[in-house]
Write a structure and sequence with these properties.
It is a single chain. The chain has a five-stranded antiparallel β-sheet. The chain has a four-stranded antiparallel β-sheet with strand order 3-10-11-12, with no helix packed on it. Helices cover 3% and strands 36% of the residues. It has a domain at 20-127: Jelly Rolls (Sandwich). The longest helix is centred in the first third of the chain and has 4 residues, at 39-42. With 158 residues, it is an all-beta fold. The protein has one helix spanning 39-42, and strands at 35-38, 48-55, 66-67, 72-78, 82-85, 88-91, 97-100, 109-111, 118-125, 131-133, 140-144, 147-151.
Length: 158
């Protein structure tokens, strides 16, 4: 028997994530405007997360990054984001999807370089002790006890 009575919702009506970003406050400007609706959390999902994310023009999904243990997947619902990976820039469109296998080191980020909103679903697992590398920035992260801990590449705290 389920302890969560929520059966189904309209994703676009889900509440926005209370905290706009897990990045340290001095770094949050890079993802300013990004809105995430944590859909998986509403249903009590604990093995993986699902977010409905909106990027207004000029906004980025994240710093370009690669996970050591967590797989990620995106599915574009609306708009034309630019996907930046180690291979360069790819323009995505509605109906396209992309997956990022953990441990490959191939860093990725979406940037809305268009004049209209981008809306996409993002799915990722929640593997403990995941390490994240950011090849373009002096930044590292580790997922410990359900939270991200950020440092500089030399281990200095932020």
């Amino acid at each position: 028997m389920s302890t969560n009575p929520l059966i189904a919702i309209r994703a676009a009506e889900a509440p926005l994530r209370a905290k706009p970003s897990a990045y340290p406050s001095e770094l949050q400007a890079r993802v300013k405007g990004r809105e995430k609706r944590p859909l998986g959390d509403l249903f009590g999902l604990s093995n993986f997360g699902v977010n409905l994310t909106r990027l207004p023009p000029g906004a980025a999904s994240s710093f370009r990054h690669a996970h050591s243990k967590q797989d990620e997947f995106i599915y574009i619902l609306q708009g034309y984001p630019s996907l930046y990976t180690d291979e360069g820039r790819s323009l995505l469109s509605p109906g396209m999807c992309a997956g990022f296998k953990a441990g490959t080191g191939n860093a990725h980020s979406l940037i809305n370089e268009s004049e209209e909103d981008v809306v996409y679903l993002e799915v990722g697992d929640r593997t403990e002790h995941d390490n994240v590398t950011y090849p373009d920035d002096d930044l590292c992260a580790k997922f410990v006890s359900g939270s991200w801990v950020f440092t500089r590449k030399d281990g200095t705290p932020l």
